[in-house]
Design a protein that fits this description.
The protein is of the alpha/beta class. The strands form two sheets. Strands 1, 2, 3, 5, 6 and 7 form a six-stranded parallel beta sheet that branches. A two-stranded parallel sheet has the order 4-8. The protein contains 14 helices and eight strands. The structure holds zinc ion.
Length: about 325
């Protein structure tokens, strides 16, 4: 920067503020170029002559400058801050993390396991009635994979109360259920009526299922549903998880008929319902996509049990039985 430029810059700082520096320098450069063509003796006169004009130009240019231009000049670091914010937001979105909990219970859905598969934003839950689809007695290689295809296509999560014996026989299906962010829970090892067998047998059955599922999932199952919903003190003290029963029985095992499954379920449905079905019957799998569409038309959306309990702010106790999570 020449002496002339510095002079002009200082003058500008004093008179008009720092934000006009570049305009003055620009004007000064033009002045210098013109002065060179006129000769050095003309510099001073030319500069003095142009200073008045430049003031007018600057005033006009300043008026023309946009709000964002002035912000940019005054706070150049704001651009860096904006880039950082956008970068952090992108990373958070990629990692499916939650920055904060606003206290809105529906936001708690973001920390649910389903977020790995279906983002919370993909399922608008606020203002919707909620229902948890639960499937017992599987997995079955004949029916469960088809059901999983349907649930994936419909973006509907479910909770599977699997038998330990079948989980051991079809580990790939269990792993697929977990990978696609459904919940996998225990329906005991061999589907025995736990209140009709010796306590030691019941304890052994429950624990065997637990260790089988842990070896496949990498963690203990977080819910248990005893066969037939039967519980006694032995069951309650052994399960080590909340006991999840149901409030809507589709009776799919009895009817094995799509229309009956739909009619029975729709007659009992309510906000916070836990719907009991079985993923071992082809007719149940046939009914599921129709049921999902019908319930969505009625204003329902589907959640896993973990999501439902979080949204309803339910504090579950091990060994206690739960039938629904109404608002
Ligand atoms: Zn069962």
């Amino acid at each position: 920067m020449s002496m002339l430029d510095k002079l002009f810059s200082r003058e500008i700082n004093r008179r008009t503020g720092a934000h006009a520096i570049s305009i003055y320098i620009d004007s000064a450069t033009k002045t210098r170029k013109r002065s060179r063509s006129l000769g050095s003796s003309a510099i001073k006169a030319s500069s003095n002559k142009n200073r008045g004009k430049n003031k007018t130009k600057i005033t006009t240019k300043r008026a023309e400058r946009s709000f964002f231009y002035r912000i940019n000049i005054r706070f150049p670091w704001l651009k860096l801050v904006a880039v950082c914010i956008i970068g952090v937001a992108a990373i958070v979105d990629l990692c499916d993390l939650t920055i904060s909990n606003t206290g809105d219970p529906y936001n708690k859905i973001r920390i649910a396991p389903m977020a790995k598969h279906v983002k919370a934003t993909d399922r608008i839950l606020k203002g919707k009635m909620l229902a948890a689809l639960t499937f017992d007695d599987g997995p079955s290689p004949e029916t469960t994979p088809r059901l999983l295809d349907i649930l994936q296509q419909k973006d509907a999560p479910a909770t599977f109360f699997t038998l330990g014996s079948k989980a051991a026989a079809y580990p790939d299906i269990i792993k697929r259920e977990a990978k696609e962010a459904h919940e996998v829970a225990s329906h005991t090892m061999h589907h025995q009526n736990l209140i009709r067998i010796p306590a030691t047998a019941a304890i052994s059955d429950i624990n065997e299922a637990k260790s089988t599922l842990k070896s496949l999932l990498g963690h203990d199952p977080i819910y248990t549903r005893p066969p037939y919903g039967n519980t006694n003190d032995t069951v309650r003290t052994t399960v080590g998880t909340p006991i999840i029963l149901w409030s809507v029985d589709s009776e799919d095992w009895r009817s094995k008929n799509v229309d009956s499954i739909l009619a029975t379920t729709m007659s009992e449905i309510h906000d916070g319902a836990i719907i009991l079905m079985h993923d071992i019957y082809p007719t149940t799998v046939d009914a599921v996509p129709i049921l999902i569409d019908t319930l969505r038309k009625e204003g329902y959306e589907f959640v896993t049990l973990s999501e439902l309990t979080k949204i309803r702010d339910a504090k579950l106790e091990n060994g206690a039985s739960y039938y629904n999570f109404r608002p």
